[in-house]
Model the fold of this input.
Amino acid sequence: MTEDTGNGQGQIKRTLKTRHLAMIALGGTIGTGLFITSGSAISTAGPGGALVAYGIMGIMVYFLMTSLGEMSTYMPLTGSFSAFSSKFVDPALGFAMGWNYWFNWAITIPVDVTSAGIVMNFWLPHVPSWVFSTIVLVLVFLINYLSVRSYGETEYWLALIKVITVIVFLIVGVAIILGIMGGQPVGFSNFHYKKAPFVGGIPAIISVFLVAGFSFQGTELVGITAGEAATPEKSISKAIHSTFWRILLFYIFAIFVIACILPYTDKNLLNSDVTNITMSPFTIIFKRAGLAVAASIMNAVILTAVVSAANSGLYASTRMLYSQAREGYAWRFFGYVNRRGIPIYALIGTMVVSTLAFATQFIVPQAYLYLTDASGLCGFIAWLGIAISHYRFRKAYTAQGHSVSELKYHATLYPFGPIFAFVLCTIVICGQNVEAFAKLDWSNILITYMSVPLFLILFFYYKIRYKTHIIPLKKVDLSRQTKGEKYDPEQN
Done:
């Protein structure tokens, strides 16, 4: 573990343990996408269609995480997948990927803290929601300001609350299905009710891909934490290896339980708003089991989910800005690390931007919706970059005379995994708002696809200005360091 260098600047500290990384990966998956919007997937595509869509998307995310795991265990760097794009593909891709991801989280933080304020109004409706939002914004700043360990511990306990909630929900749901709780056994009758199990055919399943994709965003945070993991070769691979089983248990099984108990025609499944927690599928099913305070409990759980998302967002964007500075893609002072191992100027810079974005809601009433839509595709662009980087990494690794057996962690089904992820992410990005194109609704198109032209502008700006090219496989830099950060496997 590295300490102060003697000139007043410290270095990134490797203090995140395996349990932290496991919960960070898990917490990144469980959020409002599961607790609130999962019901809309059943309503759109029927129980069978929702399970197929989430299953396929879950498999894709698993492939992506094993790709990220192979690269991160070989080269555990802070802000990893942006650095991988620079080293294995093209510096212009790394430049665009890093700024795209930073932008994504910087504008998502105010969305999450705004949601926290709305959730708090459930108990205290007469207090302005911005008061609670401001408190959460200050809180997540302090957590990230103290140390990376404080971030890891916070995420561990917040994720644990969500995990316990889902486990209890699954137990209660199975009891209702079997008739142990809530009256008569429900069984599987809703799977062949009216047009079930598949409603709307393939187009409906594709539309659910979008919902599933947003639900799973955040799992790539494991790659961001790689540079601060105490034992990256062990902890990263363990956290990623269990991703598939987490998705199976917490999404596939939860959707199965909801679909068994609530028919796809139930109007409550259309709810996708944190302001109406009483209509969450989780709340409805807990009430059916006789839990009178279900709405309050689920509101508390959703509050932990949005606080967790804001906390992780500030951590991820700070580390990405730090990585950009160390790669030479941002002002150098953003790469400064204090004695506690915090990239302090990157943290403050990100906080300023997030606070300004949060303040826009006082000027533009629809700012919350605009920020939500604008950040939507950034995560899928990051996933595309991970797939491309891993494909190139493995090609370069073997082209330079290395054997795959030398790698401590192997991605699943290479090259099918990254190719499958690339194709599916492309489909999701292109199909994000087909209706807007059909109606030539240009304002809607601009908001929905804002991150795509932003990414392309960044990419071509750097490529044209610095005349970069795709790096030949035999010239790819496989050394375990970036311009400003070294990895010493003996330091642990």
Summary: Confidence is low (pLDDT under 50) at residues 1-7, 484-492.
